[in-house]
Amino acid sequence: MPDAAADPLIVAISSRTLFDMEDSHALFEREGLDAYADFQRSHEDDLLAPGVAFPLVRKLLGLNEGAPPEAPRVEVILISRNSADTGLRIFNSIEHHGLSIKRAAFSNGAPPYPYIKPFGSDLFLSAHAEDVRAALAAGVAAATLLPSRAPQHRHDQLRIAFDGDAVIFGDEGERVSREGGLAAFAAYERANAGQPLSGGPFRGFLDALHRLQTVFPMGENAPIRTALVTARSVPAHERVIRTLREWGIRLDEALFLGGRAKGPFLEAFGADIFFDDSEHNIVSARDHVAAGHVPHGVANPR
User: Fold this and answer.
1) Residue 146 CA from chain centroid, whole number
2) Which CATH number do you get for residue 197?
3) Which GO MF terms are attached to this record (predicted)?
4) Which of 28, 96, 166, 251 qualifies as a cystine partner to 277, CB 3.0-4.6 A?
């Protein structure tokens, strides 16, 4: 059995996704950095409300129960464009909520993404789209979360859902579909059913998450549950199944929706977060669950 404590899952997260900071961010947009800094210093004892990624972070850190403090299974790192001075309010809120976040990088307005890879991050979540794109370009799984208040609690399990093409897998299927239509895509997938798909930007994160899952018992009561939620349908399902088998990756559930809207299915699954490269799918999902846009592949030209 792999020793996940020796190689923890590391998630880097921005302050605007961890906490609801939209009032102060609006002040920054309206009046500038000095007004923002003055506001944060004068309110540093006022606790911040949980943001869109707060439930995810709490569940991730909860996976450390029973692990030695010096060797956690999961580590969450704060990556912030605040200065250390204006970030004091953030750490006061972290302490109040009992979140075991010990490491942080405050870039004082500069792009913070250069620090993501040295921390060994498997995943980066941010409200700043350019930082997300830069992290993806550096080979780190990353997604943009639009800030909002924390979503409602549905399950004690950590539940993570992924789109397939251009997220877990490469975007070759989407390219064929866009160039030749659905009939060409179906023919291409049938012809290549025995050939594993290439890995997408979230393959490394999925590997790390799967490694962490192996520490815990399998079954419905396991603390982590994963799902593939894809627009693919029969016969394009076969290549997905064979690819995951080739990689040695277990996904607990797989939904082949054939183009149906994903939002209601994600709500039924109870996802704490869903990752998709399509902004259209993210719009559908955000009405139901926290959703991270992965700006990768043919659907996201620069």
Assistant:
1) 12
2) 3.40.50.1000
3) 5'-nucleotidase activity; magnesium ion binding; nucleotide binding
4) 166
